[in-house]
Amino acid sequence: MPHDTPAPPPDAEARRAVAPVICYPVETLPVPDLAAYRAARATARKTGEVLVPPREGRCFRVPAGHFFRITCVGGPQVGDLNLWNAADLSERFYSGKTRALHGSHLSTGDRMWSALPFLRPMATIVADTLGWYGIDPFGGSVHDVIGTRCDPYTHRLLSGGDYHHCCHSNLTRALADATGLPLAEAEMHVHDVLNVFMCTGFTRDTGQYFMKASPVRPGDHLEFLAEIDLLGALSACPGGDCSAEHSSDAAACFPLLVETFAPEAPPAGWAPPAPNGYGRSHGRRDGR
């Protein structure tokens, strides 16, 4: 959509030249001990697996201190990941704050943070076979926390049709099946995602969110330590590798494999993080 462009003021270039400031300096964030995490992972035994079919979603559970791995199998495929506190669905992944703390795309050492008022690590990335990709000449990178998930409402808004295998719907069905919640209630818990394996960025000219063919290949994986007891849901996106479109039955799609692993002992020095310590008075002495 075109925008009216006013004439620039005389000091336009000086205003543009102002240096940026990082919104949330992270030097004081607790740093995960990846060496300890990896040592614990080396002792871990496989405890289960879930195969997520193409254009479908499935749930899985991971106890705190255990590991889970998402692997590309069959062909290039992206996935949309939701996480909840297994005991309290109101504590769920907060993609916006994760993006503010770690950047637009995640990799090894980054964490998935939970929603307010909890704001604590839910999972830490301990291995990423696509960590070599970096940022490409288009500004694209993998594993983004900027896209929301394909959904049937936007699809209807833009195309006028109904499509029931968008990631939002896949995650909704998966959560309803795993919890016994009515579909409408389950849908209210589905939230913005980690786009696993998806290659995305923003165009330089229009600032629009773009996707391009994922560099993922069979055997590539993203692995996490569960910092708290987790219920996860993963959708194998109907866009396949998202090289052309999503919300489509035309794209080549493949399954995704989720495996869980239990270490012989938790990582040395590790404990599940407590919820955020803010007292929630919000400046009122009576707290009301």
Fill in the keyword field for this structure.
6-stranded antiparallel beta sheet; 288 residues
Question: Care to describe what's here?
Answer:
The structure is a single chain. This protein is of the alpha+beta class and 288 residues long. The protein has one domain. The chain is built from six helices and 13 strands. The protein has helices spanning 12-16, 34-42, 95-102, 152-159, 167-179, 183-187; strands at residues 45-52, 57-62, 67-72, 79-85, 88-92, 111-113, 121-128, 141-144, 194-202, 209-212, 221-226, 230-236, 256-262. Strands 2, 4, 5, 8, 9, 10 and 12 form a seven-stranded antiparallel beta sheet that branches. The longest helix is centred in the middle third of the chain and has 13 residues, at 167-179. The protein is globular and about 65 Å long.
Rg? 20 Å
- Supply the number of helical segments: 6
Helical/strand content category: alpha+beta
Question: Largest beta sheet, briefly?
Answer: 7 strands, antiparallel
Overall 3D shape: globular
| H/E element order | HHEEEEEHEEEHHHEEEEE
Instruction: Give the termini distance in whole angstroms.
Output: 45 Å
Helix content: 10-25%
